[in-house]
Amino acid sequence: MSETSDPYGPIHGRASFRDHVDRGTFPAHGLDPDEAYELLHTGLMLDGRETLNLASFVTTWMEPQAEQLIHDTIRKNHIDHEEYPAASLVEEACVHMLGDLFNAPDPAQVVGVATIGSSEAIMLGLLAHKRAWRDRRRAAGLPSDRPNVVFGAETHVVWDKFANYFDVEMRKIPMKPDRFVLSAADVEERVDENTIAVGAVLGTTHVGEADPIEEINDLLVRIKADKGWDVPLHVDGASGAFIAPFSEPDLRWDFRLEQVASINVSGHKYGLVYPGVGWLVFRDASKLPEDLVFSVNYLGGAQPTYTFNFSRGSAMVQAQMYNFMRLGRSGYTAIVETMLANARFLNETLEASGKFTILNPGLAEPVVTFSIKGDPGFDVYHLSARLREDGWIVPAYSLPPDADAVHLMRVVVRLDLSRLMIEMLLRDLFAAWDALVAEQPVERARSKPDVWTSPAHAAAKSKARTGLAQ
Ligand SMILES: *Cc1c(COP(=O)(O)O)cnc(C)c1O
Predict the structure, then answer these.
(1) Pairwise CA distance, residues 212 & 210, whole Å
(2) Which residue among 242, 290, 379, 468 is least packed, with the fewest CB closer than 10 Å?
(3) Structural domain count, the chain
(4) Using a 6 Å cutoff on CB, does residue 56 contact ligand 1?
(5) What is the per-residue pLDDT for 295?
Protein backbone atom coordinates (compact mmCIF):
# COMPACT_ATOMS: atom_id res chain seq x y z
CA MET A 1 0.00 0.00 0.00
CA SER A 2 1.30 3.45 -0.89
CA GLU A 3 2.31 5.57 2.08
CA THR A 4 0.13 8.46 1.01
CA SER A 5 -2.99 6.35 1.14
CA ASP A 6 -5.52 7.46 3.76
CA PRO A 7 -7.90 4.61 4.64
CA TYR A 8 -10.54 7.16 5.62
CA GLY A 9 -10.00 9.41 2.62
CA PRO A 10 -12.06 9.40 -0.54
CA ILE A 11 -12.10 6.05 -2.38
CA HIS A 12 -10.73 7.62 -5.52
CA GLY A 13 -7.64 8.78 -3.66
CA ARG A 14 -6.84 5.42 -2.11
CA ALA A 15 -4.13 2.93 -3.02
CA SER A 16 -6.48 0.43 -4.63
CA PHE A 17 -7.34 2.96 -7.33
CA ARG A 18 -3.69 3.53 -8.10
CA ASP A 19 -1.92 0.23 -7.48
CA HIS A 20 -1.52 -2.48 -10.07
CA VAL A 21 -3.91 -5.36 -9.43
CA ASP A 22 -2.23 -8.66 -10.20
CA ARG A 23 -5.02 -10.76 -11.68
CA GLY A 24 -2.93 -13.93 -11.52
CA THR A 25 -2.31 -13.97 -7.79
CA PHE A 26 -4.84 -14.66 -5.04
CA PRO A 27 -5.05 -11.41 -3.03
CA ALA A 28 -3.02 -11.50 0.18
CA HIS A 29 -5.20 -8.96 1.99
CA GLY A 30 -8.70 -7.66 1.71
CA LEU A 31 -10.05 -4.27 0.70
CA ASP A 32 -12.55 -1.94 2.21
CA PRO A 33 -15.99 -3.06 0.92
CA ASP A 34 -16.73 0.29 -0.73
CA GLU A 35 -13.40 0.15 -2.52
CA ALA A 36 -13.95 -3.41 -3.72
CA TYR A 37 -17.40 -2.46 -4.95
CA GLU A 38 -16.27 0.67 -6.74
CA LEU A 39 -13.35 -1.07 -8.45
CA LEU A 40 -15.54 -3.86 -9.82
CA HIS A 41 -18.54 -1.68 -10.53
CA THR A 42 -16.55 0.78 -12.63
CA GLY A 43 -14.67 -2.03 -14.38
CA LEU A 44 -17.96 -3.57 -15.52
CA MET A 45 -18.84 -0.36 -17.35
CA LEU A 46 -16.61 -1.63 -20.15
CA ASP A 47 -19.34 -4.15 -20.95
CA GLY A 48 -22.03 -3.48 -23.50
CA ARG A 49 -25.34 -2.08 -22.26
CA GLU A 50 -27.77 -4.90 -21.57
CA THR A 51 -30.81 -3.32 -23.20
CA LEU A 52 -28.82 -2.53 -26.36
CA ASN A 53 -27.62 -6.13 -26.60
CA LEU A 54 -29.94 -7.25 -29.36
CA ALA A 55 -27.97 -10.48 -29.78
CA SER A 56 -29.50 -12.09 -26.76
CA PHE A 57 -32.92 -13.48 -25.93
CA VAL A 58 -32.20 -13.20 -22.24
CA THR A 59 -34.29 -10.79 -20.19
CA THR A 60 -32.76 -7.43 -19.34
CA TRP A 61 -35.60 -5.74 -17.50
CA MET A 62 -37.92 -6.75 -14.66
CA GLU A 63 -40.27 -4.75 -12.48
CA PRO A 64 -38.89 -3.31 -9.23
CA GLN A 65 -41.25 -5.55 -7.23
CA ALA A 66 -39.76 -8.60 -8.96
CA GLU A 67 -36.29 -7.32 -8.15
CA GLN A 68 -37.35 -6.89 -4.54
CA LEU A 69 -38.57 -10.50 -4.44
CA ILE A 70 -35.27 -11.62 -5.99
CA HIS A 71 -33.44 -9.73 -3.30
CA ASP A 72 -35.67 -11.30 -0.61
CA THR A 73 -34.94 -14.84 -1.81
CA ILE A 74 -31.31 -14.53 -2.84
CA ARG A 75 -30.15 -16.31 0.32
CA LYS A 76 -32.26 -19.40 -0.23
CA ASN A 77 -30.58 -22.50 -1.62
CA HIS A 78 -33.39 -23.91 -3.69
CA ILE A 79 -32.40 -27.55 -3.15
CA ASP A 80 -33.16 -27.34 0.59
CA HIS A 81 -36.79 -28.30 0.15
CA GLU A 82 -37.06 -29.38 3.77
CA GLU A 83 -35.92 -25.99 5.07
CA TYR A 84 -37.67 -23.94 2.40
CA PRO A 85 -40.85 -25.86 1.67
CA ALA A 86 -42.73 -22.75 0.58
CA ALA A 87 -40.06 -21.91 -1.98
CA SER A 88 -40.07 -25.41 -3.42
CA LEU A 89 -43.87 -25.50 -3.66
CA VAL A 90 -43.57 -22.54 -5.98
CA GLU A 91 -41.43 -24.60 -8.34
CA GLU A 92 -43.99 -27.38 -8.38
CA ALA A 93 -46.81 -24.94 -9.03
CA CYS A 94 -44.89 -23.38 -11.94
CA VAL A 95 -44.45 -26.84 -13.50
CA HIS A 96 -48.21 -27.50 -13.39
CA MET A 97 -49.03 -24.03 -14.68
CA LEU A 98 -46.70 -24.70 -17.60
CA GLY A 99 -48.41 -28.07 -18.13
CA ASP A 100 -51.66 -26.14 -18.42
CA LEU A 101 -50.14 -23.49 -20.73
CA PHE A 102 -48.74 -26.28 -22.94
CA ASN A 103 -52.13 -28.05 -23.04
CA ALA A 104 -51.18 -31.24 -21.24
CA PRO A 105 -54.09 -33.71 -21.25
CA ASP A 106 -54.00 -33.49 -17.45
CA PRO A 107 -51.85 -30.69 -16.00
CA ALA A 108 -51.96 -32.42 -12.60
CA GLN A 109 -50.06 -35.35 -14.14
CA VAL A 110 -47.16 -33.44 -15.68
CA VAL A 111 -43.80 -33.76 -13.97
CA GLY A 112 -40.95 -31.34 -14.43
CA VAL A 113 -38.14 -29.36 -12.92
CA ALA A 114 -36.69 -25.88 -12.78
CA THR A 115 -33.23 -25.87 -14.32
CA ILE A 116 -30.55 -23.25 -14.83
CA GLY A 117 -31.75 -22.76 -18.39
CA SER A 118 -32.92 -24.62 -21.45
CA SER A 119 -29.51 -26.24 -21.92
CA GLU A 120 -29.79 -28.21 -18.70
CA ALA A 121 -33.46 -28.89 -19.44
CA ILE A 122 -32.70 -30.29 -22.92
CA MET A 123 -29.93 -32.54 -21.65
CA LEU A 124 -32.13 -33.89 -18.85
CA GLY A 125 -35.05 -34.42 -21.22
CA LEU A 126 -32.99 -36.29 -23.79
CA LEU A 127 -31.29 -38.33 -21.09
CA ALA A 128 -34.73 -39.49 -19.89
CA HIS A 129 -35.63 -40.52 -23.45
CA LYS A 130 -32.32 -42.34 -23.84
CA ARG A 131 -32.93 -44.29 -20.65
CA ALA A 132 -36.54 -45.09 -21.54
CA TRP A 133 -35.41 -46.33 -24.97
CA ARG A 134 -32.75 -48.54 -23.36
CA ASP A 135 -35.25 -49.98 -20.90
CA ARG A 136 -37.70 -50.79 -23.70
CA ARG A 137 -34.98 -52.44 -25.79
CA ARG A 138 -33.69 -54.50 -22.85
CA ALA A 139 -37.18 -55.60 -21.90
CA ALA A 140 -37.67 -56.82 -25.46
CA GLY A 141 -34.30 -58.62 -25.49
CA LEU A 142 -32.94 -56.28 -28.19
CA PRO A 143 -29.51 -54.62 -28.36
CA SER A 144 -29.28 -51.16 -26.82
CA ASP A 145 -25.74 -50.14 -27.65
CA ARG A 146 -26.33 -47.81 -30.61
CA PRO A 147 -28.73 -45.02 -29.69
CA ASN A 148 -29.23 -42.09 -32.06
CA VAL A 149 -30.98 -38.75 -31.86
CA VAL A 150 -32.47 -36.91 -34.86
CA PHE A 151 -32.62 -33.11 -35.09
CA GLY A 152 -31.89 -30.29 -37.50
CA ALA A 153 -28.95 -27.96 -37.95
CA GLU A 154 -31.21 -25.06 -36.92
CA THR A 155 -30.97 -26.13 -33.29
CA HIS A 156 -28.85 -24.70 -30.51
CA VAL A 157 -25.36 -26.07 -29.79
CA VAL A 158 -26.68 -27.87 -26.70
CA TRP A 159 -28.15 -30.60 -28.93
CA ASP A 160 -24.68 -31.38 -30.29
CA LYS A 161 -23.35 -31.25 -26.75
CA PHE A 162 -25.89 -33.81 -25.58
CA ALA A 163 -24.94 -36.24 -28.37
CA ASN A 164 -21.26 -35.75 -27.63
CA TYR A 165 -21.41 -35.88 -23.81
CA PHE A 166 -23.83 -38.80 -23.59
CA ASP A 167 -22.50 -40.99 -26.42
CA VAL A 168 -25.48 -40.83 -28.68
CA GLU A 169 -25.08 -40.86 -32.46
CA MET A 170 -26.07 -37.45 -33.79
CA ARG A 171 -28.22 -37.57 -36.90
CA LYS A 172 -28.20 -33.90 -37.67
CA ILE A 173 -30.18 -32.78 -40.67
CA PRO A 174 -28.35 -30.13 -42.70
CA MET A 175 -30.15 -26.96 -43.73
CA LYS A 176 -31.06 -26.52 -47.37
CA PRO A 177 -29.55 -23.52 -49.14
CA ASP A 178 -33.02 -21.94 -49.22
CA ARG A 179 -34.92 -23.70 -46.43
CA PHE A 180 -33.88 -23.17 -42.83
CA VAL A 181 -36.19 -25.58 -40.98
CA LEU A 182 -36.77 -29.34 -41.04
CA SER A 183 -39.25 -31.23 -43.14
CA ALA A 184 -41.00 -34.42 -42.05
CA ALA A 185 -39.38 -36.20 -45.02
CA ASP A 186 -35.91 -35.27 -43.71
CA VAL A 187 -36.80 -36.82 -40.38
CA GLU A 188 -38.34 -39.94 -41.87
CA GLU A 189 -35.10 -40.86 -43.66
CA ARG A 190 -33.18 -40.88 -40.41
CA VAL A 191 -35.47 -42.41 -37.81
CA ASP A 192 -35.05 -46.08 -36.95
CA GLU A 193 -35.56 -48.46 -34.03
CA ASN A 194 -32.53 -46.95 -32.26
CA THR A 195 -33.81 -43.38 -32.29
CA ILE A 196 -34.20 -42.23 -28.69
CA ALA A 197 -35.99 -39.01 -29.67
CA VAL A 198 -36.58 -36.50 -32.43
CA GLY A 199 -36.00 -32.84 -31.67
CA ALA A 200 -38.03 -30.00 -33.15
CA VAL A 201 -37.62 -26.32 -32.43
CA LEU A 202 -40.21 -23.65 -31.82
CA GLY A 203 -38.21 -20.49 -32.48
CA THR A 204 -35.03 -21.65 -34.17
CA THR A 205 -31.73 -20.27 -32.96
CA HIS A 206 -30.42 -19.07 -36.32
CA VAL A 207 -33.48 -17.65 -38.01
CA GLY A 208 -36.30 -17.60 -35.46
CA GLU A 209 -38.68 -19.81 -37.42
CA ALA A 210 -40.56 -22.91 -36.26
CA ASP A 211 -39.96 -26.46 -37.42
CA PRO A 212 -43.14 -28.13 -38.75
CA ILE A 213 -43.84 -29.74 -35.40
CA GLU A 214 -47.33 -31.04 -36.17
CA GLU A 215 -46.13 -32.71 -39.39
CA ILE A 216 -43.24 -34.35 -37.57
CA ASN A 217 -45.65 -35.54 -34.89
CA ASP A 218 -47.93 -37.04 -37.54
CA LEU A 219 -44.97 -38.81 -39.08
CA LEU A 220 -44.01 -40.31 -35.71
CA VAL A 221 -47.60 -41.38 -35.07
CA ARG A 222 -47.58 -43.18 -38.43
CA ILE A 223 -44.20 -44.81 -37.70
CA LYS A 224 -45.57 -46.03 -34.37
CA ALA A 225 -48.57 -47.63 -36.09
CA ASP A 226 -46.58 -49.11 -38.99
CA LYS A 227 -43.40 -50.26 -37.29
CA GLY A 228 -44.12 -50.27 -33.59
CA TRP A 229 -41.35 -47.74 -32.75
CA ASP A 230 -42.66 -45.30 -30.17
CA VAL A 231 -40.26 -42.40 -30.82
CA PRO A 232 -40.83 -39.41 -28.52
CA LEU A 233 -40.76 -35.86 -29.84
CA HIS A 234 -38.97 -33.32 -27.66
CA VAL A 235 -39.92 -29.72 -28.43
CA ASP A 236 -37.17 -27.18 -27.85
CA GLY A 237 -39.32 -24.19 -27.03
CA ALA A 238 -36.48 -22.25 -25.39
CA SER A 239 -37.76 -18.98 -26.83
CA GLY A 240 -40.96 -19.88 -28.68
CA ALA A 241 -42.82 -21.72 -25.91
CA PHE A 242 -43.47 -18.41 -24.14
CA ILE A 243 -44.56 -16.77 -27.40
CA ALA A 244 -46.87 -19.16 -29.29
CA PRO A 245 -49.29 -19.83 -26.37
CA PHE A 246 -50.03 -16.09 -26.32
CA SER A 247 -49.70 -15.07 -29.97
CA GLU A 248 -51.21 -18.16 -31.59
CA PRO A 249 -53.09 -20.21 -29.00
CA ASP A 250 -54.53 -22.44 -31.72
CA LEU A 251 -51.16 -23.45 -33.12
CA ARG A 252 -50.66 -27.13 -32.32
CA TRP A 253 -47.06 -27.66 -31.26
CA ASP A 254 -47.43 -28.83 -27.65
CA PHE A 255 -48.90 -31.70 -25.59
CA ARG A 256 -52.00 -31.62 -27.81
CA LEU A 257 -49.78 -33.62 -30.17
CA GLU A 258 -49.58 -37.29 -29.23
CA GLN A 259 -45.83 -37.88 -29.61
CA VAL A 260 -44.74 -34.70 -27.81
CA ALA A 261 -43.32 -36.25 -24.66
CA SER A 262 -41.35 -33.32 -23.27
CA ILE A 263 -40.88 -29.59 -23.72
CA ASN A 264 -38.19 -27.21 -22.53
CA VAL A 265 -38.51 -23.46 -22.22
CA SER A 266 -36.17 -20.76 -20.93
CA GLY A 267 -37.78 -18.79 -18.13
CA HIS A 268 -35.04 -16.22 -18.65
CA LYS A 269 -35.96 -15.63 -22.30
CA TYR A 270 -39.59 -14.79 -23.06
CA GLY A 271 -40.58 -16.07 -19.62
CA LEU A 272 -39.29 -12.55 -18.82
CA VAL A 273 -37.05 -13.47 -15.87
CA TYR A 274 -33.37 -12.53 -15.39
CA PRO A 275 -30.73 -15.17 -16.27
CA GLY A 276 -30.78 -18.42 -14.32
CA VAL A 277 -34.03 -20.29 -14.90
CA GLY A 278 -35.31 -22.81 -17.42
CA TRP A 279 -37.98 -25.48 -17.35
CA LEU A 280 -38.34 -29.09 -18.41
CA VAL A 281 -41.87 -30.50 -18.48
CA PHE A 282 -42.82 -34.11 -19.26
CA ARG A 283 -46.31 -35.01 -20.47
CA ASP A 284 -46.67 -37.35 -17.48
CA ALA A 285 -44.56 -39.39 -15.08
CA SER A 286 -44.33 -42.36 -17.48
CA LYS A 287 -41.90 -40.33 -19.63
CA LEU A 288 -39.36 -39.96 -16.82
CA PRO A 289 -37.78 -43.31 -15.86
CA GLU A 290 -37.81 -43.66 -12.09
CA ASP A 291 -34.23 -44.84 -11.84
CA LEU A 292 -33.03 -41.41 -12.97
CA VAL A 293 -34.67 -39.69 -10.04
CA PHE A 294 -32.51 -39.73 -6.94
CA SER A 295 -33.84 -39.42 -3.46
CA VAL A 296 -31.56 -37.73 -0.96
CA ASN A 297 -32.02 -37.55 2.78
CA TYR A 298 -29.05 -35.49 3.93
CA LEU A 299 -30.95 -32.23 4.03
CA GLY A 300 -33.58 -33.85 6.24
CA GLY A 301 -36.67 -35.59 4.87
CA ALA A 302 -36.60 -37.55 1.62
CA GLN A 303 -36.63 -35.54 -1.55
CA PRO A 304 -36.58 -36.58 -5.18
CA THR A 305 -34.14 -34.78 -7.47
CA TYR A 306 -33.65 -34.87 -11.22
CA THR A 307 -31.18 -32.11 -12.06
CA PHE A 308 -27.47 -31.85 -12.81
CA ASN A 309 -26.91 -29.06 -10.32
CA PHE A 310 -27.56 -29.62 -6.66
CA SER A 311 -27.37 -26.21 -5.00
CA ARG A 312 -28.89 -23.32 -6.90
CA GLY A 313 -30.48 -20.02 -6.08
CA SER A 314 -34.22 -19.92 -5.51
CA ALA A 315 -34.61 -16.31 -6.54
CA MET A 316 -35.22 -16.81 -10.26
CA VAL A 317 -37.77 -19.54 -9.60
CA GLN A 318 -39.64 -17.12 -7.35
CA ALA A 319 -39.29 -14.41 -9.98
CA GLN A 320 -40.86 -16.73 -12.54
CA MET A 321 -43.90 -17.21 -10.34
CA TYR A 322 -44.03 -13.46 -9.80
CA ASN A 323 -44.45 -13.03 -13.56
CA PHE A 324 -47.04 -15.81 -13.83
CA MET A 325 -49.14 -14.22 -11.11
CA ARG A 326 -48.46 -10.61 -11.96
CA LEU A 327 -49.02 -10.95 -15.73
CA GLY A 328 -51.28 -13.94 -16.24
CA ARG A 329 -52.30 -14.87 -19.78
CA SER A 330 -53.57 -11.37 -20.53
CA GLY A 331 -50.38 -9.66 -19.38
CA TYR A 332 -48.08 -12.00 -21.30
CA THR A 333 -50.32 -11.61 -24.36
CA ALA A 334 -50.10 -7.81 -24.20
CA ILE A 335 -46.30 -7.90 -23.96
CA VAL A 336 -45.93 -10.57 -26.66
CA GLU A 337 -48.18 -8.62 -29.04
CA THR A 338 -46.22 -5.44 -28.42
CA MET A 339 -42.89 -7.16 -29.08
CA LEU A 340 -44.29 -8.74 -32.25
CA ALA A 341 -45.65 -5.39 -33.46
CA ASN A 342 -42.24 -3.78 -32.89
CA ALA A 343 -40.50 -6.66 -34.68
CA ARG A 344 -42.95 -6.36 -37.57
CA PHE A 345 -42.26 -2.64 -37.87
CA LEU A 346 -38.50 -3.31 -38.01
CA ASN A 347 -39.05 -6.10 -40.47
CA GLU A 348 -41.23 -4.02 -42.80
CA THR A 349 -38.96 -0.97 -42.71
CA LEU A 350 -35.92 -3.06 -43.60
CA GLU A 351 -37.85 -4.74 -46.38
CA ALA A 352 -39.18 -1.44 -47.75
CA SER A 353 -35.67 0.02 -47.92
CA GLY A 354 -34.92 -2.44 -50.73
CA LYS A 355 -31.52 -3.10 -49.16
CA PHE A 356 -32.28 -6.24 -47.19
CA THR A 357 -33.90 -9.66 -47.53
CA ILE A 358 -35.94 -10.73 -44.52
CA LEU A 359 -35.26 -14.38 -43.73
CA ASN A 360 -38.21 -15.00 -41.38
CA PRO A 361 -41.10 -12.98 -42.78
CA GLY A 362 -43.55 -15.19 -40.85
CA LEU A 363 -42.32 -13.81 -37.49
CA ALA A 364 -42.94 -16.92 -35.39
CA GLU A 365 -41.34 -14.90 -32.59
CA PRO A 366 -40.19 -11.28 -32.15
CA VAL A 367 -36.88 -11.88 -33.89
CA VAL A 368 -35.85 -10.23 -37.13
CA THR A 369 -33.19 -11.87 -39.30
CA PHE A 370 -32.03 -10.26 -42.50
CA SER A 371 -29.30 -10.42 -45.10
CA ILE A 372 -28.02 -7.81 -47.53
CA LYS A 373 -29.54 -7.86 -51.00
CA GLY A 374 -26.97 -8.06 -53.80
CA ASP A 375 -23.43 -6.79 -53.23
CA PRO A 376 -23.10 -3.17 -52.16
CA GLY A 377 -19.35 -3.75 -51.65
CA PHE A 378 -19.54 -4.46 -47.92
CA ASP A 379 -21.17 -7.12 -45.83
CA VAL A 380 -23.15 -7.74 -42.64
CA TYR A 381 -19.95 -7.97 -40.59
CA HIS A 382 -19.08 -4.37 -41.49
CA LEU A 383 -22.57 -3.20 -40.63
CA SER A 384 -22.46 -5.04 -37.31
CA ALA A 385 -19.08 -3.48 -36.44
CA ARG A 386 -20.39 0.00 -37.32
CA LEU A 387 -23.48 -0.42 -35.16
CA ARG A 388 -21.25 -1.32 -32.24
CA GLU A 389 -19.76 2.15 -32.42
CA ASP A 390 -23.23 3.48 -31.61
CA GLY A 391 -23.63 1.02 -28.73
CA TRP A 392 -25.91 -1.45 -30.52
CA ILE A 393 -24.96 -5.10 -30.37
CA VAL A 394 -26.43 -6.75 -33.47
CA PRO A 395 -24.61 -9.96 -34.33
CA ALA A 396 -23.67 -10.99 -37.86
CA TYR A 397 -23.09 -14.64 -38.68
CA SER A 398 -23.47 -17.31 -41.35
CA LEU A 399 -26.02 -20.11 -41.35
CA PRO A 400 -24.89 -23.71 -40.85
CA PRO A 401 -24.28 -26.05 -43.84
CA ASP A 402 -25.76 -26.33 -46.44
CA ALA A 403 -27.02 -22.77 -46.11
CA ASP A 404 -23.62 -21.37 -45.14
CA ALA A 405 -23.56 -19.01 -48.10
CA VAL A 406 -26.17 -16.96 -46.22
CA HIS A 407 -24.69 -14.22 -44.04
CA LEU A 408 -27.20 -12.48 -41.85
CA MET A 409 -27.86 -10.21 -38.90
CA ARG A 410 -30.29 -10.88 -36.08
CA VAL A 411 -32.23 -8.50 -33.86
CA VAL A 412 -33.99 -10.06 -30.90
CA VAL A 413 -36.83 -7.76 -29.88
CA ARG A 414 -37.31 -7.92 -26.12
CA LEU A 415 -39.76 -6.17 -23.87
CA ASP A 416 -37.44 -3.24 -23.15
CA LEU A 417 -36.95 -2.37 -26.85
CA SER A 418 -39.59 0.23 -27.63
CA ARG A 419 -40.77 1.40 -31.03
CA LEU A 420 -38.90 4.64 -30.32
CA MET A 421 -35.64 2.74 -29.86
CA ILE A 422 -36.23 0.67 -32.99
CA GLU A 423 -36.58 3.92 -34.93
CA MET A 424 -33.21 5.02 -33.54
CA LEU A 425 -31.69 1.65 -34.40
CA LEU A 426 -32.94 2.00 -37.97
CA ARG A 427 -31.59 5.53 -38.18
CA ASP A 428 -28.16 4.30 -37.05
CA LEU A 429 -28.29 1.28 -39.35
CA PHE A 430 -29.06 3.36 -42.44
CA ALA A 431 -26.43 5.93 -41.43
CA ALA A 432 -23.91 3.11 -41.10
CA TRP A 433 -24.91 1.88 -44.54
CA ASP A 434 -24.43 5.34 -46.07
CA ALA A 435 -21.05 5.74 -44.37
CA LEU A 436 -19.87 2.39 -45.69
CA VAL A 437 -21.02 3.30 -49.20
CA ALA A 438 -19.31 6.68 -48.97
CA GLU A 439 -15.94 5.42 -47.82
CA GLN A 440 -15.75 2.53 -50.20
CA PRO A 441 -13.99 4.00 -53.26
CA VAL A 442 -11.38 5.60 -51.02
CA GLU A 443 -10.58 2.30 -49.33
CA ARG A 444 -10.50 0.49 -52.65
CA ALA A 445 -7.97 2.88 -54.07
CA ARG A 446 -5.81 2.61 -50.97
CA SER A 447 -5.56 -1.13 -50.57
CA LYS A 448 -6.40 -3.08 -53.65
CA PRO A 449 -7.23 -5.81 -54.35
CA ASP A 450 -8.91 -7.30 -51.31
CA VAL A 451 -10.00 -4.31 -49.26
CA TRP A 452 -12.59 -6.05 -47.21
CA THR A 453 -10.24 -8.56 -45.70
CA SER A 454 -7.81 -5.98 -44.38
CA PRO A 455 -6.64 -6.89 -40.83
CA ALA A 456 -8.88 -4.24 -39.25
CA HIS A 457 -11.91 -5.52 -41.06
CA ALA A 458 -11.01 -9.14 -40.35
CA ALA A 459 -10.79 -8.30 -36.65
CA ALA A 460 -14.11 -6.49 -36.73
CA LYS A 461 -15.55 -9.43 -38.59
CA SER A 462 -14.41 -12.05 -36.11
CA LYS A 463 -15.57 -9.87 -33.25
CA ALA A 464 -18.97 -9.54 -34.83
CA ARG A 465 -19.13 -13.27 -35.48
CA THR A 466 -18.66 -14.12 -31.85
CA GLY A 467 -21.43 -11.72 -30.96
CA LEU A 468 -24.08 -14.40 -31.46
CA ALA A 469 -25.48 -15.32 -28.09
CA GLN A 470 -28.01 -18.02 -27.24
C1 LIG B 1 -31.42 -20.22 -25.95
C2 LIG B 1 -31.71 -21.53 -26.57
C3 LIG B 1 -31.22 -22.71 -25.98
C4 LIG B 1 -30.34 -22.68 -24.75
O5 LIG B 1 -31.04 -22.15 -23.70
P6 LIG B 1 -30.38 -21.53 -22.37
O7 LIG B 1 -31.57 -21.17 -21.57
O8 LIG B 1 -29.55 -20.37 -22.80
O9 LIG B 1 -29.55 -22.61 -21.75
C10 LIG B 1 -31.58 -23.90 -26.56
N11 LIG B 1 -32.36 -23.95 -27.66
C12 LIG B 1 -32.84 -22.83 -28.26
C13 LIG B 1 -33.72 -22.96 -29.46
C14 LIG B 1 -32.52 -21.58 -27.73
O15 LIG B 1 -33.01 -20.48 -28.30
Answers:
(1) 6
(2) 290
(3) 3
(4) no
(5) 74
| Alpha-carbon torsion angle 221, 158, 99, 243, nearest 10 | -100
Do 268 and 153 lie in one domain? The reply is: yes
pLDDT value at 445 more than 50: no
d(CA 327, CA 333): 9
Within a domain: 3: no
Atom of ligand 1 nearest to the CA of 121: 9
3-class state of residue 114 by DSSP = strand
**Nearest CA owner, ligand 1 atom 5:** 118
Domain of 363 in residue numbering reads as 336-464
Q: 278 CB under 6 A from ligand 1? A: yes
DSSP secondary structure letter of residue 376: -
Rounded to two decimals, what is the model's pTM? 0.92
Pocket test for ligand 1, best of 123, 162, 205 (most atoms within 8 A of CB): 205
Domain CATH code at residue 120: 3.40.640.10
291 and 385 within one domain: no
- Is 238 a pocket residue for ligand 1 (Cβ < 6 Å)? yes
Q: What mean pLDDT do residues 23-50 have?
A: 94
